[in-house]
Amino acid sequence: xxxxxxxxxxxxxxxxxxxxxxxxxxxxxxxxxxxxxxxxxxxxxxxxxxxxxxxxxxxxxxxxxxxxxxxxxxxxxxxxxxxxxxxxxxxxxxxxxxxxxxxxxxxxxxxxxxxxxxxxxxxxxxxxxxxxxxxxxxxxxxxxxxxxxxxxxxxxxxxxxxxxxxxxxxxxxxxxxxxxxxxxxxxxxxxxxxxxxxxxxxxxxxxxxxxxxxxxxxxxxxxxxxxxxxxxxxxxxxxxxxxxxxxxxxxxxxxxxxxxxxxxxxxxxxxxxxxxxxxxxxxxxxxxxxxxxxxxxxxxxxxxxxxxxxxxxxxxxxxxxxxxxxxxxxxxxxxxxxxxxxxxxxxxxxxxxxxxxxxxxxxxxxxxxxxxxxxxxxxxxxxxxxxxxxxxxxxxxxxxxxxxxxxxxxxxxxxxxxxxxxxxxxxxxxxxxxxxxxxxxxxxxxxxxxxxxxxxxxxxxxxxxxxxxxxxxxxxxxxxxxxxxxxxxxxxxxx
Length: 495
Hints:
Layout lengths: L10 H24 L13 H7 L3 E5 L3 H5 L20 H10 L4 E7 L28 H11 L3 E6 L12 H18 L5 E3 L15 H11 L4 E4 L5 E3 L14 E2 L12 H6 L6 E2 L2 E6 L15 H11 L5 E5 L10 H18 L8 E4 L34 E6 L10 E8 L9 E6 L4 E5 L6 E9 L3 E7 L7 E7 L9
Parallel strand pairs: 1-2, 1-10, 2-3, 3-4, 4-5, 5-6, 6-9, 9-10
Antiparallel strand pairs: 7-8, 11-12, 12-17, 13-16, 13-18, 14-15, 14-17
Helix pairs in contact: 4-5, 4-10, 6-7
């Protein structure tokens, strides 16, 4: 209908259609022309691999080796490989531990300080090849990587620089060549590796040895370009400066790598807090074991839930990723009790954060940059959208702020004792000070940095109709991706 001969559009209708199309095009062009561009990044900013790593939040470590059988934490390097007899080793069961904690990345200690290798390295006899396990034909690295990928988990590896077994240790060129050769084995023979772990740990009276870290790092980059490299100074992920699972109350993702010497005494505080003037984006990773020690010992048990939750608040809740160690026992399995504790830990975290009491709120702010940067973005559950104020806010009395007007379903404000604030760190870390007010009254929480995630656990639950977050930043307008309110029903046992 409405078409003339040969199916062509009737002149009047063709003209109307053309006018409608033209109007739509003009409107679309006008909208595009008025769209506000995002603010410039504040350098440095994370790489895509670093950003993916940060959003993991909880990852897993597995310490297993000769120390498991000798009941030591630091082996001598003179252990007899014949004592390595994990009769029931099952790497798939290890992944049950990772799944219990809902980790997305698992890191295996492929070689600890005793020099014993969990894969049949061609460059040493001190490996699983010399053991009775699997008749000397086993490869724990291969079983670990295969089990992880079967569960959809990414793989990481730790290769200790300090080696108390190898006779080349102490001969600078010879040992560094040996170390690089083993890097080649691990990074070419076991598929994609998402993180590789280096440290500078060794005893003060250990043999003097110069590690060629830069050569190692560049070798790693050449073999796997998207990997994250961990060490005291990164270059991608840094040590947090302690093994307690606790970052500084101030925690910048930025440092100056030139100020850090791997393994040097006295760098812990700098690593713990980071540097607001840092030129390098090297966020911290909090490594801690669920047990008192890194390796399994019969007389030890897992930390209580209250301690694991405290660690979570002090790591993930302070702009870090939590690397939680679960050591397999002498049979080659993670203790059932340890897996149960990890499952209890994850269930508690889920219970706390699965309900956001700020959901359904109305968000207002000191200003909004324009279309696409509304205050309401902090409530949409996405890390990729964010509220951006205008730069003028920072020069006005009152500064930057965002406020949530809560809408409880039954009309009564719900009580909360956890405040969650998240920056859009993809464009840099900016917030250097912040305060949280309820109903315009006294401050209920305050702090310095925010970063990827800042969690404030209040001394007692509070309730109100408005929650305002005030922010200070000299590095450009703060960009906030989320503000959430939660009730931690486990808090009484943690305080």
